[in-house]
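Hi C.,

You asked whether I'd gotten around to modeling the 265-residue construct. I have! Everything is below, sequence then structure, no commentary in between.
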Amino acid sequence: MPTPNPIAFTAFGIDVRWYGIMIAIGIVLATSIVYKRAPKHEIDPDRTLDFILICIPLGIVGARLYYVIFNWHYYAGDFFKIINLRAGGLAIHGGLLFGLAAAAILCKLWSYRPLNILDLTMPAVALAQSIGRWGNYFNSEAHGGPTNLPWGIMVDGQRVHPTFLYESIWCFLLFFVLIAIDNNRRFEGQTFLAYGILYSIERFFVESLRTDSLMLFGVLRQAMVLSAVVFVICLVLYIILFMRAQRHGKLFHSRYSKYTGKFNQ
């Protein structure tokens, strides 16, 4: 792949970067998918927009704070560097933590089942990640070390692993896997936990290739550590809840949905 131009176009003297465009496209598509699939989860589609309008901005704030904290030596004392999202620097783990926390609080306030909301949203999150990762390509960031593979990308005159591409492909496939799981889920939280398991597997191994990892204590790659912890927790919970659902037969009893006009399982 050739070295890309991070600027998509210039309007009124302002450079519009591909990084922001990719993230915006991901958010729009994710929102439309959540809105369309909401009735399957017995949720008013319009209410999902309330969740999205609150959780996405907070998720972006969390993604930025997470990145800045682990790169404090670079951002310390420069407020404008901290808020300059156009140059890149969003950590997906921070975005997920803030977004999930916001969703949990809103579920409590609005009397929704948190795991049901998370099952609805995680396939769309995976798709948004798949698209948003291309912003890293245009910024020539989040790449791996040197490689001779034909699909390597050129960064600073050197061919390197396109780790953004590996994650983009994985998350795109993950989107379809999660949709299939959600369409046949046996217990609430199954889709959410499957995301935690499958995304953590990919992130753990792809992170080992990257050259710009956020570090813990200057030694451990924090994304690998967090991915390992999330994988274990989600796997254990998945097994426990799946076995419980097996013992009890159907966890979901038939009930009429005013949104679909059918009895859902």
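If it helps when you're writing up: The longest helix spans residues 222-247.

Thanks,
B.
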